[in-house]
Each structure stands twice: as structure tokens, then as C-alpha cells.
Design goal:
Order of helices and strands: EEHHH
Strand content: 5-15%
Radius of gyration: 55 Å
Strand order of the largest sheet: 1-2
Structural class: mainly alpha
Distance between the termini: 163 Å
């Protein structure tokens, strides 16, 4: 076998060369300018076609039907989510209120069991007797300050 390397030749054109020229309507235009003009024309045509197709799609009954259905579905979903949220909040509040009521009931039951009712009754009776004693003292003071009437002089209680 012959293993001689193939030689690859690369040629770099001089930058001073002028680009190829194309003649249109009697005037000369560089190929690059002509290609840019053709590209702009094609882009404008495609843009116009896409714009027209998009407008037709937007104005179509199918789009309006789908949009209406999506809006209705979104409203139903929003209503359902709001209702479910309200139910959950209500349920949570009810559970919290029930738990608080149970705790208060348990506290009161414990307090009732732990209360020494004899002592409470004794305290209440003592307070009532003190109040009655004060009232009798006031009445005594009032009666002692006023002179007795004539019709009561003979009705004195017997003295020992």
C-alpha cells in the first residue's frame, strides 16, 4: 500500500475583489443587496400570510366557542374552589369551637369535683351573717339617734 498523504489546497480570495454583480433594469446591483431585497420581500409575504391566518383564527367561531367554554369552566372551577375553601374554613372553625367547648366543659367539671362545697357554704354563710350584722348595727344606730314616739313608750320590752 501506498501511504502518501493527499494534499489539500485551500484558496483564500483577496479582500479587494468586488462581489459578483447582477444587472436589473439596466442598473448594476451587488448580489448581496439583491438577495437581501428578495429576503425582505419573502419575509413580508410570510408575515402578511401569518397575520392573515392568525386574524382568521381569532375571528373564527371555533375560537369563540372554545374561549367561552374555557371561561365557563374557569368560573365553575373558581366557584368550586371557593366553596371548598369556605367549607374547609367553616369545618376548621367548627372543630376549633367544639374543641374549645370540650376543654371548657372539662375544666368546669374538674373545678366542680375539686371544690370543697362545705367550705364554700361556710364562707357564704359567714359573709351573709356579717352583712346582716352590719345592717342591724346601722338600724340600731338610726333608732338610737331618733327619740321614741309617745305611743311606743309603754311598749318597751321587759328588762331583766
Amino acid at each position: 500500500m501506498d501511504e502518501s498523504p493527499e494534499i489539500l489546497k485551500i484558496e483564500i480570495p483577496d479582500e479587494e475583489e468586488t462581489p459578483p454583480q447582477v444587472t436589473t433594469d439596466g442598473r448594476t446591483t451587488p448580489l448581496k443587496d439583491r438577495a437581501a431585497q428578495a429576503g425582505k420581500g419573502a419575509a413580508q409575504a410570510v408575515t402578511g400570510a401569518v397575520t392573515q391566518a392568525a386574524q382568521k383564527g381569532w375571528d373564527s367561531e371555533a375560537r369563540k366557542t372554545v374561549t367561552g367554554a374555557v371561561k365557563k369552566g374557569a368560573q365553575k372551577s373558581a366557584t368550586a374552589v371557593a366553596a371548598k375553601s369556605a367549607d374547609l374554613v367553616h369545618e376548621h372553625l367548627v372543630k376549633a369551637a367544639e374543641e374549645q367547648a370540650r376543654q371548657q366543659k372539662a375544666h368546669l367539671e374538674t373545678r366542680l369535683r375539686e371544690t370543697d362545697w362545705k367550705a364554700e357554704a361556710g364562707k357564704g354563710a359567714a359573709a351573709t351573717l356579717r352583712w346582716a350584722s352590719r345592717q342591724v348595727d346601722r338600724l340600731t344606730q338610726r333608732l338610737a339617734d331618733t327619740p321614741p314616739r309617745d305611743d311606743h313608750q309603754n311598749h318597751k320590752p321587759p328588762s331583766n
